[in-house]
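BUG: 3D viewer hangs when loading the predicted structure for this chain

Environment: internal workstation, default settings.
Expected: structure renders.
Actual: progress bar stalls at 90%.

Input used:
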Amino acid sequence: MRRLLIALLAICSLSAVAADNWKPFPLDQSAYDYSGDKLRQAWPQLTRGFGDYPFPDAGWVVSMASQHPQTLGKTVAAGTGFSGKPEEAEAYAQKLQEVWRLLFRGDFAQAKEQGMALGVGGQIPAMFAQVIYAMFLVPDQTEKHRLLEEVIVHTDDAGELIQADIVAQFGRVYAKARLGEELSVPVVLKRGYTSQIPQELDALLAKQPQQPFALALYGGYEAGVIRKVGKLVGKMTYGVSADNMEKYFQRSFQARDDLPIGHYEYANALTYVYGDDEEDKVIEHLKRAVAIKPISAMEALEVAHAQKILAQHQLKLAKN
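Structure tokens produced before the viewer hung:
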């Protein structure tokens, strides 16, 4: 039954790729042009939140095809034009790199459509584009939840390559963490997120102990649980604590201190755990977030979000 449900959801989701009427990126995109060799040159900085993430060139395509035959089978079945032959890898890699360019530029709908057309390999940036779009550009909570749930279903159903890919893994657990913040405790418990989120983050950190995104998300998860159930129940039932939250964020900042999302997530976590007691530190980290010059559409949305939160905190201070 579960396999049938997943298959039906996947069919519906794929048909929705062309039907999704996504909003365009609302900010200036001119600084996020990574055409030609610019993408490879900027890749380490663009993907710094994931740690050491390989550039998707022809060598990567051949390696993934040989290491993951199940994924290759799905890619061939999707009619992508890539059958696993090394001489076809360059053409596939060029298409895949274009999906990443669309993602970094903020053309999220096109990234999803073109990525999904490339099969499992293209699904990685396609679904991450969907996560970003859902989190920052969808005002309707029901629609946001639908998009995040779709990411989880696609990732679970994609097979072995996705289970080995840190961007895909992070996108799935990030979607679960955001749903966990907004859904009721009984729903979160029924879905198993309270066990799945730490397990999936532990798996990511086992591969890359200093991955900034995973560390910041872990700290945010601990704070979110405390926010919902309190410090005592959080510690006794779920093993979370303010000390753990602080340690995860400090490790994240030690790895990379130039990620907007890390600073505003920490600001949110401080508010969840301490209320108004750490207001000065909250404002400090929000200011650090907005001072970072974004190098991608995702970071531009993060900075804009941090600016909005900062304005709210400054207004609250002015009234007191």
